[in-house]
Inverse folding.
């Protein structure tokens, strides 16, 4: 037999605080009343294996066991199980966190079975676990809500609005200022300067060519939101949050931060209300033209934009190619493939395949160096053209549209998809791969919901959720092979609808 428990409690505290503190296993003795000690045995990526030791119970017994726990911050769930099961045949635990208007709904479900020789039955253990869970949840709620009140910006004392939610709204209202703080830290290279250890304001001011007093005020503000840490001696140290601005990290967010600070982004976003009222990009009233013409007239900004998109697009290339499986195909077309980085990576994994890069003339010209450096130039046909007006290659068995369709509203996206479907013709085994965000449904965090506003304000395009993708693809003669993963950059594999 198996048994289960299901308990939940509402914690009136921010999601990040609840998530961080309840997943800090080393700090559990301060969060749970039953645990006396925690020993971290192993860390493997996000997973942690640890030993828990309890305080003595009523009979003076001390219990100890080993568990393994894996949090997933994107879905806000945690899976855990006992490695040393003791009286249990098995014990599996799932933690779920759901954002609510008043805080975070924290839910624990446990599934278990007792060993045949266990002195306690499933029913008795279920009752014991339920009683203990209710007690521990109430204590955790109390601790976390107190920590939230004491956190920077979390209290109700002093000037300004009181209450957690009013303080959070005030924090969000400061978004423009926070973006300027992050952008200035990036421009000054502060994260790199603090990478080797804490630095004084005087040292940092000398290294950045800034006024010490003014720099201190910037650093103090950054420390209040966790980007830096002001130490008791007045020096400033880096933090894991601020480390994302380091230039040397291949996964640094520095290119995206610098992109977001450019005037061709900030000016249109200052006219967000125009886009909401009209459904049109805000580039014409703020920049004087659409974004593509702006890049043509301002080649430095256009080149910077292309470099940023290329850098960000290469982060997950190998994971996306795992889905595409280029080894399955003999000829691959990358439509709007920039300078050919993705196509080159695909052809390196498929040494017998050839490719077609279809792009704007300036990008096709720049691609020659990339393809040559990757050793695939002789296997790539480069075509300079406009995929809305020029014929697409009709001799390929795989077509890729990577970060292309979100630039366009549904009508234009449908034009392109229909053209691809026409190029495929009756080749039932041909495939189309769309690499895009799939917007997660519900109220949870998803960066794509912010990117969708980028598409609205800057390009006139949109990010799409699962239902929107299915409708658009069906309209153009395609069907999804599998359900795409939501809330991420992902790969939608599509087949001609007749093959469904």
């Amino acid at each position: 037999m198996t048994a289960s428990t299901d308990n939940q409690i509402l914690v009136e505290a921010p999601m990040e605080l609840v998530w961080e503190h309840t997943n800090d296993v080393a700090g559990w003795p301060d969060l749970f009343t039953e645990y006396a000690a925690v020993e971290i045995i192993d860390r493997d990526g996000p997973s942690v294996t640890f030993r828990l030791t309890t305080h003595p119970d009523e009979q003076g017994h001390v219990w100890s066991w080993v568990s393994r726990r894996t949090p997933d911050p994107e879905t806000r769930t945690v899976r855990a199980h006992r490695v040393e099961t003791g009286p249990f045949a098995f014990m599996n635990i799932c933690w779920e966190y759901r954002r609510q208007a008043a805080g975070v709904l924290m839910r624990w479900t446990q599934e278990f079975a007792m060993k045949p020789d266990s002195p306690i039955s499933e029913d008795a253990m279920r009752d014991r676990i339920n009683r203990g869970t209710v007690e521990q949840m109430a204590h955790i709620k109390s601790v976390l809500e107190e920590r939230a009140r004491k956190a920077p910006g979390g209290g109700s004392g002093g000037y300004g609005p009181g209450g957690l939610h009013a303080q959070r709204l005030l924090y969000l209202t400061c978004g423009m200022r926070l973006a300027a703080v992050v952008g200035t830290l990036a421009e000054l290279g502060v994260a790199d300067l603090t990478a080797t250890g804490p630095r004084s304001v005087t040292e940092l001011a000398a290294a950045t060519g800034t006024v010490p007093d003014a720099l201190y005020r910037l650093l103090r503000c950054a420390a209040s939101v966790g980007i830096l840490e002001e130490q008791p001696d007045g020096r400033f140290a880096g933090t894991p949050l601020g480390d994302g601005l380091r230039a040397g990290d291949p996964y640094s967010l520095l290119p995206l931060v610098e992109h977001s600070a450019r005037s061709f982004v900030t000016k249109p976003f200052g006219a967000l209300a125009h886009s909401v009222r009209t459904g049109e990009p805000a580039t014409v009233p703020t920049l004087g033209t659409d974004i593509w013409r702006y890049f043509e007239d301002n080649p430095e900004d256009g080149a910077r934009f292309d470099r940023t998109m290329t850098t960000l697009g290469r982060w997950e290339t190998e994971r996306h190619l795992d889905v595409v499986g280029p080894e399955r195909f003999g000829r691959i077309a990358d439509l709007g493939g920039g300078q050919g980085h993705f196509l080159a990576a695909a052809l390196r994994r498929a040494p017998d395949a050839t490719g077609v890069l279809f792009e704007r003339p300036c990008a096709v010209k720049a691609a020659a160096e990339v393809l040559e450096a990757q050793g695939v130039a002789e296997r790539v046909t480069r075509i300079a053209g406009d995929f809305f007006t020029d014929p697409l290659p009709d001799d390929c068995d795989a077509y890729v549209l990577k970060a292309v369709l979100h630039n366009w509203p549904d009508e234009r996206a449908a034009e392109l998809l229909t053209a691809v479907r026409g190029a495929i013709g009756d080749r039932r085994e041909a495939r189309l791969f769309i690499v895009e965000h799939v917007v997660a449904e519900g109220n949870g965090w998803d960066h794509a919901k912010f990117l969708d506003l980028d598409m609205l304000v800057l390009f006139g395009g949109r990010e799409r959720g699962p239902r929107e993708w299915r409708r658009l693809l069906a309209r153009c003669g395609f069907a999804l092979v599998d359900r795409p993963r939501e809330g991420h950059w992902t790969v939608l594999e599509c087949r001609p609808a007749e093959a469904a």
The mean pLDDT is 90. The CA atoms of residues 344 and 371 lie 6 Å apart. The radius of gyration is 27 Å.
